[in-house]
Amino acid sequence: MKLPRHLLSVDDLTRESAIAILDTAAELSKLSDGKMKKLPTLRGRAVVNLFYEDSTRTRISFETAAKRLSADVINFNAKGSSVSKGESLKDTALTLQAMGADAVIIRHPSSGAPQRLADSGWIKGPVINAGDGTRQHPTQALLDAFTIRNRFGRLGGGLDGLRLAIVGDILHSRVARSNIFLASMLGAEVTLIAPPTLLPVEIDQWPVDVSYRIDSKIYEFDIVMPLRIQRERMNQGYFPTEREFSRHYGLNVDRVAKMKPDAVILHPGPMNRGVEIDAGSADSTRSLIVDQVANGVFVRMAVLYLLMAGSDHSLDHDTEGEGAWR
Amino acid sequence: MTRIVLSREDISRAIRRIAHEILERNKGAENLLLLGIPTRGVTLAERLQRDISEIEGRPVEMGSIDITLHRDDLRLRPPRPLSPTKIPVSGIEGKDVVLVDDVFFSGRTIRAALDALGELGRPSTVQLAVLVDRGHRELPIRADYVGKNLPTARSESVRVRLSPLEEIDEVVIEG
């Protein structure tokens, strides 16, 4: 099986390699259940967190994952760095390479920046996309799939037959784009629920159903994922008021009560309580939001291990252990 | 060229003998914990567990320990999927741990296993049982219980086949 050299988009994955990442993450989560808090796997390797955009959970999650594997972590924030003095992505990358970065985790407001970094050859090691513009956020989709798989007892398999609804600001959401393609690759049926102004034009080429109303459908889904309204990416009015958006599309306790008995709520965070989700739903027993954060570390450990630890990018399934390993 | 060095009967006799040796050395099964190293070490540990329980007339604890993340030669090989680590809830603290593996070669797997154990706690003793010792050690580690000493050339490879992973039980030398 081939693993990608870089993880830039969920398109870099196959169903098989995605499941291999999720299985690896599952073993890592079991190890951390016990006392094994720190593994020596990436000792002496340097991982750079190259963040051009604000982030708490993703950056800390990657940092924790790298540290649990004993890698050295260098955090680079564009604010307060030479970037504010006008340094280009290329020069920053060359500097990091010269300092011995073995892998670069990049978040950037421009869609495609991680691809540029990977294609350019400025960085020798793997490039991992931690969110670029409105394009992709592959590790978020992987951790969501991991969380869903755990909850629905699908260990070792995909998400076949499960129904996922993604609600709200699809237009500006890289989390939605990654989740749509990963979840459908893993066999889930995806429905987007949003006002027409918050749906991108290309949805007719996506493997999704679309609905403009939440109430007529809410009881059909196994997983409901409300998304934050991304004001920072909006340059015009997409809906009249937040209150009106919340009334038509927000997840609230009344809507949650209509969900399937075992249906769950995921949210990629950060939440705007009272807008896309109310406090009662976010804190309900259906909510897996805290699990998502915990699982994020295991999924990112799995990605770092599989992309960094070996000599190349095939996954060796040879169980004749002695054959190649001694 | 392939030649069979241990048949099904040879393997089950070797396991039976190791079971007796483990009991003799540890004066019973009371404080024992058998830990198989995936994949075939786990199958062997299961068989040892069955034999020891039969001989002693009481159950003996077993588990598995994946050592992949502790290897020192990770960068020389493609990445490997991880295998399950299963430690009994009572842990390894103060136990007499017997690591079980199929082929004992460079000793690097066992070094990694000792590191992995160190992360989990402090056993009273750690012993090593292997089905085949093929020599060519690269580290100062030796086995306490050996099914068969098998002098080999470095260029040869030793294949252990065990049901239910394979159709038959046998150990062969190839090359």
How would you describe what is shown here?
- The complex is a heterodimer of chains A (326) and B (175).
- Chain A is α/β, with parallel strands linked by helices and 326 residues long.
- Chain A folds into two domains: 10-137 and 293-308, Rossmann fold (3-Layer(aba) Sandwich), CATH 3.40.50; 139-291, Rossmann fold.
- Chain A contains ten helices and nine strands.
- By secondary structure, chain B is of the alpha/beta class.
- Chain B has three helices and eight strands, in the order βαβαββαββββ.
- Chain B has helices at 8-26, 40-56, 108-120, and strands at 2-6, 32-36, 61-64, 96-104, 125-133, 145-149, 157-161, 170-174.
- A five-stranded parallel beta sheet of chain B has the order 3-2-4-5-6, with helices on both faces. In chain B, strands 1-8-7 form a three-stranded antiparallel beta sheet.
- Chain B is globular.
- The model of chain B has no long low-confidence stretch (mean pLDDT 94).
- At the A-B interface, helix 1 and helix 10 of A face helix 3 and strand 7 of B.
